[in-house]
Amino acid sequence: MDGNGRWAKARGKDRIFGHFEGVESVRAVLEASVEWGVKYASFFAFSEENWGRPQEEVLGLMDLMMRSMKNELQTFLDNRIRFRVLGDFSRLTPGLREAIRNMEETTAHCDKMTMIIFLSYSGKWDLRQAARRMAEEGGGDLGDYLVTAGIPDPDLLIRTSGEQRISNYMLWQLAYTEFVFTDTLWPDFRKEQYLDALREYASRDRRFGKVK
Ligand code: IPE
Ligand code: MG
């Protein structure tokens, strides 16, 4: 999800308003995902590098995360959406950690789809923690030690706001993911733009390195 700040700036508003409006896009994309039968929808909400933003913005985003979870709990239960948060929890406040744990537990039985928020996450951090644990435990498959263990690799990655880079997202898991880049800023990315991205995805020929 990228471009919230620029969206706000273009309207002469504070960056946080872009983040507020971005939550509406998350809601729209999630709603469409349920409707269209998407099984996993993941959102890169806050990277390890984002901790380096001004404190006011970091606090604003954490507060928004906390409030959004509270507001949406019933919607998740009604729509049978399982909620997961993946990332380096050691950097979160105890209050936020507790709220996440509670939301994850309350929705653990939901089986229609899974929504994953990547929070305080980076792909390199994930690989580092996985490699360390794998060495401690004496081996296995690295993928089983990543925070995404048990979750299928993404079929499609959508990046908004015209940037064309991975920015330390799931470095291992994106091995055969299809990429769709769009100039649309995240707060303007709604059902119609999501459908365009899925159409683009559907036109791709996925061979996974083999011949057809
Ligand atoms: C949202 O967009 C992504 C987050 C890290 C919350 P940005 O905050 O990166 O917006 P821009 O890139 O400054 O426009
Ligand atoms: Mg950005």
Describe the protein.
The chain has 212 residues and is of the alpha/beta class. It has helices spanning 4-9, 15-36, 55-78, 94-106, 123-137, 191-202; strands spanning 40-47, 81-86, 113-121, 156-159, 178-181. Strands 1-3-2 form a three-stranded parallel sheet, with helices on both faces. Strands 4-5 form a two-stranded parallel sheet. It starts with a helix and ends in a 10-residue tail after the last helix. Bound molecules: 3-methylbut-3-enyl trihydrogen diphosphate and magnesium ion. 3-methylbut-3-enyl trihydrogen diphosphate (IPE) binds next to α1.
Describe the structure concisely.
The chain is an alpha/beta fold and 212 residues long. The chain is built from six helices and five strands. It has a single domain, classed as Undecaprenyl pyrophosphate synthetase (3-Layer(aba) Sandwich).
The proportion of residues forming helix, as a percent range, comes to 40-55%
Number of separate structural domains: 1
Structural class: alpha/beta
Mean pLDDT: 98
Please name the defining characteristics of this protein.
5 strands, three-stranded parallel beta sheet, binds 3-methylbut-3-enyl trihydrogen diphosphate, Undecaprenyl pyrophosphate synthetase, binds magnesium ion, alpha/beta, globular
